[in-house]
Amino acid sequence: MCTLETHGNIFLLTLTGTDSEHRLSLTLISEIRTLLGKVRSESKSKPGSVLITTAQGKFFSNGFDLAWAQSKGPNQFRDRLYHLLQQFKPLIADLISLPLPTIAAVTGHAAAAGFILAICHDFVLMRKDRGFLYMSEIDIAITFPSYFMNLLRLKIGSPRNLRDVALHGVKIKAEVGVEMGIVDSAYDSAEKTVEAAMRLGEKLRLKNWNGEVYGEIRKSTLKGVLPTLGLVEKEIVTAKL
């Protein structure tokens, strides 16, 4: 359901498998967290490491596995959805605390939790020939968990953006996402998006930043969401002067 490749100091995490929508099931969430743990561990011996997350096929991720949540009937839907939300939260905490730069190469639709997964990366690159960013909650009548809304406030910029994304369920294509400041850059195809992410990764790699310091500074820029994710800030001073 996902793979991890290394290209020098660049880690490439790819969502794969027969489920082309890459629905965030309990299994996929667990697999991503396992691979992020591997990235965290191996990056300690690879200064200047970078993570790129992408996906095969039409979707980056179409959100939670709602079919599983609904499979035991309406009486258990709320509890199962809540369980997915609670299991997804530490995955977001993993990304936000990861001690290296992160890039999302969004090669297809990213909806709901898939949208959140994308914007938790430091950079979002997106293909413009297919795919959109979309928070579907208003259309399927589900409220936002607090950590989703906190992230959206911090990541997507203006109150107008927040209104359009959260209250209007606007489907944002790549070039519009660039105009809104949600997407960093847009490309003509999935292949070119991943290639651009690799080029950006190479540039970031050359900075050779202290990974632990980088992760803590990232956390400080997202202070508003840390308590809901169980994260705390740490002060780090190194001898690199």
Automatic annotation (TrEMBL):
Q: Which GO terms describe its biological process?
A: fatty acid beta-oxidation
Transmembrane segments annotated in the record for this chain:
95-119, 131-152
UniProt cross-references to CDD domains, sorted A to Z: crotonase-like (cd06558)
* SUPFAM superfamilies to which the protein is assigned, alphabetical: ClpP/crotonase
Claim: Cell division is one of the keywords in the record: no
Keywords assigned by UniProt, alphabetized: Lipid metabolism, Membrane, Transmembrane, Transmembrane helix
Pfam families from the UniProt entry: ECH_1 (PF00378)
Which reaction does this enzyme catalyse, per its entry? a (3Z)-enoyl-CoA = a 4-saturated (2E)-enoyl-CoA; a (3E)-enoyl-CoA = a 4-saturated (2E)-enoyl-CoA
Descriptive protein name: Delta(3)-Delta(2)-enoyl-CoA isomerase
Gene Ontology cellular-component terms listed: peroxisome
Which Enzyme Commission number(s) are on file for it? Answer: 5.3.3.8
Q: Report the source organism.
A: Aquilegia coerulea (Rocky mountain columbine)
Family of this protein: Belongs to the enoyl-CoA hydratase/isomerase family.
Q: Which InterPro entries match?
A: ClpP/crotonase-like_dom_sf, Enoyl-CoA_hydra/iso
Top-level EC class, please? isomerase
Q: What is the lineage of its organism?
A: Eukaryota, Viridiplantae, Streptophyta, Embryophyta, Tracheophyta
Its annotated pathway?
Answer: Lipid metabolism; fatty acid beta-oxidation
Single GO MF descriptor: delta(3)-delta(2)-enoyl-CoA isomerase activity
